[in-house]
Amino acid sequence: MAQQVVRPSVPYRGSVPGGVYEGKLIEIRGTVPYGAQRFEINLMTGYDPSSDRALHLSVRFDGRIVVRNSMERGAWGIEERQGIFPFSSGRDFTIMILAEISGYRIAVNSQHCWEYNHRISMSRVSSIFIDGTIQIERIEFIDKTNPYLYTGYYPTCPVAYPASYITPAYITSPGICPIPAIPSPGVCPIPSIPSFPNNPGTRPNPSIPSYPSNPGGFNPGTCVVPPPEQFQPYQPSGRSSLAPVYNPSIPYAYPVYGGLKPGMMVYISGRPSASAHRFTINFQNGTAPYPPPDISFHFDVRFFSRSIIRNSRVNNTWDREETLISHFPFQQAVNFDLIIRIENDRYMVALNGQHFVEFKHRMKPLDRFDTLYIENDIVVSSIRFS
C-alpha cells in the first residue's frame, strides 16, 4: 500500500502515514532548479520545528556534499559527509529512504549512496520536513517493499548498464551489479525485459519500422495519405552511427550523428514502470546540464494527470504546451510501440500501429538537434532508427 503527496509547496511539513518501521520506504521525486544552493529533507519526531530530527539530509551544492546528521534535544550530532554527490542543478531526481533495523539506506536515481545508523528510534518518527531550493513532484510512502523488484523500489546494488549505454556527461557511471544465473543473497538480479510478440496485430515489423498508412488522428476511420515524397525514408550515410540499442539504462542519451532530417523515423519499444508517474522523450541539442539544451520536441507522458504534453524549449524557456489528445493510451507496466517520424514541417507520432498526434516544428534547422533523450519512469527494450 502506498500513499502520496503530489506537488506540495516548499517548505513542506507533513505526516508520515503509519510511521516508520522496518521495510518502510519513502520516495521523493523532484527537480533542483538552476542556481540552487541547498535543500534538506528531515524525518522528525513531531510537527514542531524544534522536534528531534532522526534523519537530517542536507544537500549542499555550494560544497558539493550531502551531510547526514541527527538533532536531539536541540543539539546536533556528528556530521557524516563521506560519499558521492549524485545531484545536478536543473535536473530531476528520485530519492529513496529505506528504513531498516540498523538504520536508513538512501539511494538517488536508482543508485545506493549512503547508509545512516539510527541515533533516534525510528518508531518515534511521525513527520517529514522539506525545505530549501527544490521543487517536489511527489512524495510517496510505501508500506511494503520487495527488494528484488527492479523498477520503482530500493536498489539492492548499483544498477547494471549494458555495453551500449551512452553515459551523458552529467551522470556518474555506477558500478556494475553482477547478474548470476541463480540469484544468491545480497546479489541484485536484473530481470530480462520481455520482447514484443512477432505479430501483435497491426504493429509494424520491428526489423523495418514503418509509419502507419492511416494517420487519421482523432478519426481513425479516415485515411489521410500524404504525398508519396513525404514517405521516403531517410537513408543515413553511416548506418553504424544509428545502430539499434537494446535494454538501455534510463536516463539514456542516443547521439543522432548529423542531427535530425526529414524522413527519419525513430522506433521505440518499451513499457512504463509498474509505478510510473511520468516518462519523457526529447529531441534536443546535446546533453550538457548547463546551459540547458534546447528541445525541439518534448513528449511528456504524465500518469498523475493522464495527459501527454508536447512542447519545445529554447534558451531555458518553455513555449506553449499542446495537450489535446483523443484518449490517454498508456498503461503502467504495459508494453507499447512508439514511432516518431520527422516530416519537413512537423513530427508525427504513432502508437501501436495507429497515428496518434502531430507537432509542428517551431525551431530550425533540424540538424542542430542531435540527441534523443529518454528519462523518468520507463523501461526501454529497443531503440531503432530508419
Tell me the strand percentage band.
35-45%
Residue-averaged pLDDT? 79
Number of strands: 24
How many alpha or pi helices?
A: 0
First-last Cα distance: 43 Å
Rg calculated over all Cα atoms: 22 Å
The biggest sheet, with number of strands, parallel, antiparallel or mixed sense and barrel status, is:
6 strands, antiparallel
> What structural class do you assign from the helix and strand content?
mainly beta
Helix content: under 10%
| Quaternary structure type | single chain
Strand order of the largest sheet: 1-12-3-8-9-10
Structural shape: elongated
List unreliable stretches of 5+ residues. Answer: 145-152, 156-208, 214-240
Listing every helix as H and every strand as E from the N terminus to the C terminus, the arrangement reads EEEEEEEEEEEEEEEEEEEEEEEE
Describe this structure in words.
The chain is mostly beta strands. It is elongated. It contains no helices and 24 strands. It has a six-stranded antiparallel sheet with strand order 1-12-3-8-9-10, with no helix packed on it. A hairpin with a 3-residue loop joins strand 20 and strand 21.
